[in-house]
Write a structure and sequence with these properties.
This protein has 219 residues and is α+β, with helices and mostly antiparallel strands. 36% of the residues lie in helices and 28% in strands. The chain has helices at residues 17-22, 52-61, 92-97, 121-133, 159-170, 182-188, 193-210, 212-218, and strands spanning 3-10, 27-30, 42-48, 65-74, 77-84, 101-108, 111-118, 137-145.
Length: 219
């Protein structure tokens, strides 16, 4: 039975981790591609940071970045194609080897939070063994069978995004007419309205990407 696994991986030479550990208030997500070539070293990333010039200086100094190309920059968010150096630690190759798929990959803490679609638990064990052999710390956060009816899916959401969306829904923020303001919802989580807006926006984007977009692809 196929499974979905959410894992958190850490290593000082994982892609973009040196930049992640240097800059505050940075959020990075790998833009999901339909196929993954095991030998590919170039990936599209969506990076959120308020200072583009500082970000690119860090990319210039990042030992995991061989080269990068800016595709678009809008409102503190850039889309980059980034080529990794040969020394960069990646799990994408082993995921492809076991016929798996990286459904969602984003930074969390000083590492990467990854949602994997895998054919079975043996595939996950192979990824764990690969990580162990390469000194990559791998923590399994949750696993559920894709045929289970009782399992709870994360749909690519971080715990923070899930909490924000749930609270906003419970308080009537998504109601018509709206029953509560963004400021009121943000105050309950101790966030600014800007931070709350960003968290809701990213959460809805991830939710749509994990449900509607995947459903259309399957059809």
């Amino acid at each position: 039975m196929s499974i979905t696994a959410k894992i958190h991986i850490q290593h000082e030479r994982l892609s973009l981790v040196p930049t992640l550990r240097t800059l505050d208030d940075i959020s990075i997500r790998v833009i999901t591609q339909g196929t993954t070539n095991p030998g590919v070293q170039v990936f599209p990333y969506l990076i959120e940071h308020e200072d583009r010039a500082l970000l690119e200086r860090m990319l210039d100094d990042d030992p995991t970045v061989k080269s990068y190309e800016l595709i678009d920059w809008t409102e503190n968010t850039g889309i980059y194609y980034i080529e990794n150096t040969p020394e960069t630690k990646l799990i994408s190759s082993v995921v492809t080897d076991v016929n798996g798929f990286l459904a969602h990959t984003e930074t969390k803490g000083e590492g990467w939070l990854v949602s994997l679609l895998l054919p079975d638990r043996d595939a996950l064990n192979t990824i764990w063994e690969f990580s162990n052999e390469n000194g990559i710390s791998l923590d399994i956060i949750e696993i559920y069978g894709n045929n289970d009816t009782g399992g709870t899916s994360s749909y690519g959401l971080t715990d923070e995004q899930k909490a924000a969306l749930t609270l906003a829904h419970e308080k009537g923020y998504f109601g018509e007419p709206r029953e509560v303001s963004l400021n009121e919802v943000a105050e309950e989580l101790g966030l600014s309205s800007t931070a709350m807006s960003g968290r809701l926006r990213r959460g809805m984007r991830n939710l749509i990407g994990a449900t509607l977009v995947e459903a259309e692809t399957e059809d």
